[in-house]
Amino acid sequence: MSPFEGAFDYIILGAGSAGCILAATLAEALPDDRILLLEAGDDIPPHHETVWDPTRWVLVSRDRTLEWGYRSVAQTGLHGREIQLRRAKALGGCSVHNAMVYVRGGAYGFDRWAQEGCVGWNYDNILPYFERVEERMHITQAAVDPFIEDLVVACNPMGIPYTPNYNTSPHAFGVSPFQFLISQGGQRETTFSNFLGTGRHKNLHIASGVRFDRIVFDGERRAVAVAATDLRTQRQVEIHASREILIAAGAIGSPHLLLLSGVGPENQLRDLGIPVVSALPGVGENFQDDLFVTAMFLSRKPMPPQPYGLMGAVIFTSTDPSTLPYLTDVECSLASGTMEGLELPPDKRQSYFIYPNLQLLRSRGTIKLASTNPAEHPIIDPRYLNAPEDIQRCIFGVKLARDIGHNRGLADWFAEEILPGPRVQTDAEIEAYIRQTADTCYHYAGTCKMGVDDMAVVTPNLEVRGTERLRVVDASIIPTTVSGNTAAATMMIAAKGADLVLASRRST
Ligand SMILES: Cc1cc2nc3c(=O)[nH]c(=O)nc-3n(C[C@H](O)[C@H](O)[C@H](O)COP(=O)(O)OP(=O)(O)OC[C@H]3O[C@@H](n4cnc5c(N)ncnc54)[C@H](O)[C@@H]3O)c2cc1C
């Protein structure tokens, strides 16, 4: 029987970081319901050459066969560069090719969501959902090697304390062992491998290789079906859901789908001849991302071997010391030049990179339809460094990385600064270097934001405003990014989103 035949109670669109958790939770709580999970990508075989091996992360992240191939429009703030906006297309979504870093994010950021009207989303409310995810995803805390020991020594005189566990401490400020979603056996954990796996839930039908193209609404603006294309046969199908359709297509895919379905800014839809189902000006607006900047130093001696995709330490601090210790907006990750995929010339391999990742940036971008063809990528304009204060924070990041790299605590390692290099000294020179080299952290969020204001796309219950039986449950609902990477927050959103669906179910 075709996986599309018969009626489904729930259809989940996208088997990524959020979609797999949502599907597993609903399938387990509702054993008598029929649930369908649709995904454009395929399963990753157990013998895949790179995906499961954490040390090969850089190669995985660059593997075009695993992803959608999005690019931004030319970024004025980045010297006109077009930025590759990687997004996985696979069962497991971006958990298949991300750096596996696990950071819940500071409590302050979630509390702000609640203060802005998202009742039920303050840190105390959401903590049980992080814990639920952590019961199923194994977190490996990195082992401390000799370089990291010296890094801790280097941070001390800079006023950066040692924080043993940034996720469970009251605040993340400090230098810590990094935490990764890596199994006890040393393999990548994905939301698909840990929550689903093929055939584990009898009431869940997983259809990979299927692109969803549009939500179908009835005259009452109820979401009743999904129009989709089987990518293997190009057959078009319409699949019906009797209860709810749950969009989990990520911060690019979810606004794209809503716009194609007539949910979005009225003028944009009318210009393309798309009938307006719900005029929501916020769909595709409020695009947020973190940027990283780079410092690189040659090492005097061989770097320790690296069993992870990044080095095993992280530094959280702030561009504004008055916000410490509770609010951090810089997360420095590190890499060794010996790591596979960096492809450095032999004389540069014994080296270390410090990558300050600037968070809570103020610039906001957009995602708009290029056409009504679902196969055509949307126009993505992150507007990096559009907000003037963002460049100042990136300059702070480069100076911080330099201060760490040159610090006496790392004297046994430091040989020479390669990047930005001795010629880059004044703020104007650092700014030019940033505009030439800063890059995305792939932490896209906010394009279907949750809230109670006019720009909100979903309510705090994640229901799409002006429609019925339709929710968005993924990174796109994040109203303002938090201090941290986005995967943990997205998985938490999925766990809580499933509870919201189940609560509605009990009340009907
Ligand atoms: C290279 C890279 C490295 C990263 N590293 C980290 C890290 O180390 N730690 C961290 O916390 N975060 C990291 N992130 C970010 C993090 O992985 C994402 O924020 C998170 O996975 C987003 O989850 P999601 O469920 O919202 O979207 P996704 O995981 O992208 O899931 C969306 C799914 O929907 C599918 N889909 C979309 N549109 C359609 C369509 N029309 N038809 C069918 N299927 C569709 C996609 O194929 C995908 O599987 C990284 C991201 C990238 C790209």
How does this model look, in words?
The chain is an alpha+beta fold and 508 residues long. The protein is built from 11 helices and 23 strands. Helix content is 25%, strand content 21%. The protein is globular. Helix 1 links the parallel strand 1 and strand 2 (35-38). The protein has helices spanning 17-29, 57-61, 107-115, 123-136, 146-155, 191-196, 250-260, 266-271, 388-406, 427-437, 487-507; strands spanning 8-13, 35-38, 70-71, 84-85, 139-141, 174-177, 179-181, 204-207, 210-217, 223-230, 235-247, 263-264, 278-279, 291-292, 295-299, 313-317, 330-336, 351-358, 366-368, 379-381, 414-419, 439-440, 470-472. The strands form 6 sheets. Strands 6, 14, 15, 16, 17, 18, 21 and 22 form an 8-stranded antiparallel beta sheet that branches. Strands 1, 2, 8, 9, 10, 11 and 23 form a 7-stranded mixed beta sheet that branches. Strands 3-4 form a two-stranded antiparallel sheet. It has 2 domains: 1-77 and 85-139 and 186-287 and 444-508, 3-Layer(bba) Sandwich (FAD/NAD(P)-binding domain), CATH 3.50.50; 143-177 and 291-358 and 386-437, Cholesterol Oxidase, domain 2, CATH 3.30.410.40. The mean pLDDT is 97. It binds flavin-adenine dinucleotide (FAD). Flavin-adenine dinucleotide is lined by residues 14-19, 38-41, 61, 86-90, 93-95, 97-101, 211-212, 248-251, 253, 257, 442-443, 474-475, 485-488, 490. One of its GO terms (molecular function) is oxidoreductase activity, acting on CH-OH group of donors. Keywords: FAD, Flavoprotein. Its cofactor is FAD. Residues 250-264 form the Glucose-methanol-choline oxidoreductase N-terminal domain.
